[in-house]
Amino acid sequence: MRIVFAGTPEFAAQHLQALLDAGRQIVAVYTQPDRPAGRGQKLAPSPVKQLALQHGIAVYQPQTLRDPAAQAELAALKPDLMVVVAYGLILPQVVLDTPRLGCINSHASLLPRWRGAAPIQRAIQAGDASSGVTVMQMEAGLDTGPMLLKVSTTITAADTGGSLHDRLAQLGSAAVVEAVSKLAAGELHGEVQDDSQATYAHKLNKDEARLDWSRPADELERLIRAFNPWPICHSTLNGEPLKVLAASLGEGAGQPGEILAASKDGLTVACGTGALRLTRLQLPGGKPLSFADLYNSRREQFAVGLVLGQ
């Protein structure tokens, strides 16, 4: 089976590696154009491109697949199947129709819940009990195609956006390998999604990572986990930026944002309902530290009665 793989970030690269490990024939890789990265803002290849080059696989990086020349280039590869994972470009119908077996996609949610750009983080933020990966047959709508295979996992109280991402990357990689095998054998049949159950996972942005202390403590605790490692929740203390990397539910009440207590166990801050105990923070110019370390060296900056976010 001649497979074209389309993907860009590390999540996609793990899927590509799994297909290679399974001995699948990858005739070409499509990925986003190189982007500026790092302090020097030098152009850097995507994780998928790096992996493809290591294996001597041809790499294509069109700006768009709406270009007839790019479509002809893809058709010339004569693919049987296109596997798409977090590619970042819209596939027009002519592209979806090019491979003999169409295009399949590994999406990091239990569809039809959390269609869209940030399903992993939105599931944690919403307090979902479980998440998973859905391999689906792609169609023109956004994550609306028939579902071919699903795997699920429990979202634990300790999960962050990073830990769930890593677990779903492993589950999704195995699911795609299984789906390809079953497609080749004609053993997979699509299940139509129930659109009435669909929710949309909006793209993350830094503005929504600002902690609004008037919100309930349990809501903010989930937000802090969901947005770690990016974009990282933040507030201010004494007018200076303060990044919050970990927190648990605390006890007490007061003005939203007010420091209620500080000890080696954490910094307890009042919320609209309940309180949060902040346990890992990052001050300007510093590295992330446990609050116990900050308390030992800078306890005067965390006086009871100060209000965060002002």
Automatic annotation (TrEMBL):
Q: What keywords were assigned to this record?
A: Protein biosynthesis, Transferase
Task: Report the residue ranges that make up the Formyl transferase N-terminal domain in this protein.
Answer: 1-180
Task: Tell me which InterPro entries the record gives.
Answer: Fmt, Formyl_trans_C, Formyl_trans_C_sf, Formyl_transf_N, Formyl_transf_N_sf, Formyl_transferase-like_C_sf, GART_AS, Met-tRNA-FMT_C
List the Gene Ontology MF annotations in alphabetical order.
Answer: methionyl-tRNA formyltransferase activity
Query: Which residue numbers delimit the Formyl transferase C-terminal domain?
Result: 203-298
Gene3D superfamilies referenced in this protein's UniProt entry, alphabetically: Formyl transferase, C-terminal domain (3.10.25.10), Formyl transferase, N-terminal domain (3.40.50.170)
Tell me the Pfam families matching this sequence.
Formyl_trans_C (PF02911), Formyl_trans_N (PF00551)
What the entry lists under NCBIfam families is as follows: fmt
Q: What does the organism's lineage look like at the top?
A: Bacteria, Pseudomonadati, Pseudomonadota, Gammaproteobacteria, Pseudomonadales
What protein name does the entry list? Methionyl-tRNA formyltransferase
Q: Where is the signal peptide?
A: none
Which GO CC terms are listed, alphabetically?
cytosol
What's this protein's function?
Answer: Attaches a formyl group to the free amino group of methionyl-tRNA(fMet). The formyl group appears to play a dual role in the initiator identity of N-formylmethionyl-tRNA by promoting its recognition by IF2 and preventing the misappropriation of this tRNA by the elongation apparatus.
Q: Where does (6S)-5,6,7,8-tetrahydrofolate bind?
A: 109-112
Species annotation: Aquipseudomonas campi
Indicate the family of this protein.
Belongs to the Fmt family.
Q: Which reaction does it catalyse?
A: L-methionyl-tRNA(fMet) + (6R)-10-formyltetrahydrofolate = N-formyl-L-methionyl-tRNA(fMet) + (6S)-5,6,7,8-tetrahydrofolate + H(+)
PROSITE patterns from the UniProt entry: GART (PS00373)
